[in-house]
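Notebook, bench 3.
Goal today: get a predicted structure for LLM class F420-dependent oxidoreductase from Actinospica durhamensis so we can plan the truncation constructs. The sequence was checked against the plasmid map this morning, with no discrepancies at the termini. Length recorded as 281 residues. Pasting the sequence as submitted so the record is complete.
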Amino acid sequence: MTDTVNRIALGPVGVWRGGRTTPELAVELERLGYSALWVGSSPSAELADVEALLDATETLVVATGIVNIWKSPAAEVARSYHRIAARHPDRFLLGIGAGHREATAEFARPYEALTAYLDVLDEAGVPKQRLVLAALGPRVLRLAAERTAGAHPYLVTPEHTRQARQILGPEALLAPEHKLILDTDPASARAAGTSTLRMYLGLNNYVSNLRRLGFTEDEVRGDGSDRLFDAVIANGDADHLAAAVRAHLEAGADHVPLQVIGTDDALPAYRELASALKLSR
């Protein structure tokens, strides 16, 4: 289908949240000046949580990061997209991806599965500029540029952002997620974030991508090296974390969704970051 829809303006900084995000938290993040909220943890095809967050807010863009193509049928997701887009024009970005071989029994030929899924969404009238693709390696990054608004890489460094921008070209959206721990004690920060990093180092697609970025076999084993930890999980005071966000923007990102980890209550950190980044509505 011919796509005449303009790309959604995400703004430079958003929030990435795994698990359930309450409408009350979404309202507060919007008030703090974050322009987008990414809903992680493979939301269901119905996308009811996305709609509730949009209903509660006024200008916040809500994006999925990401809908898993093996778990959520494309035709049902397309129906959900149209329902939500009609209710909240220009505020919903549908992120899709193939997930992980280790977590999905159906996982097979992911590139071909992604293209077939995109074909269904296209036939159902979901505009290209309202889609974004989880992408790490060159082949899927090129697919993201060809078939969607752009790419949403996860667990990456500013160097990956620089390389991704070269592959995507100047026009495609590039929105890399970055993890943050607001803690000026390196040992304490590592204690808070090591279990998270260890989990991702058990997933082949992330490990392969980190190897492409120059991390050694020893660095991507077990809990990961200190160098790797600092590269993918920014830790320190709010100004240091803000500098890590700017590094992605300077490397070519259009928008950086921030994921605060290592705490049960991330809102205080998001407040400090909003101040350090000088966000405002």
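Residues 13-276 form a domain with the TIM Barrel fold (CATH 3.20.20.30). The chain has one domain: 13-276.
Flagging this for group meeting.
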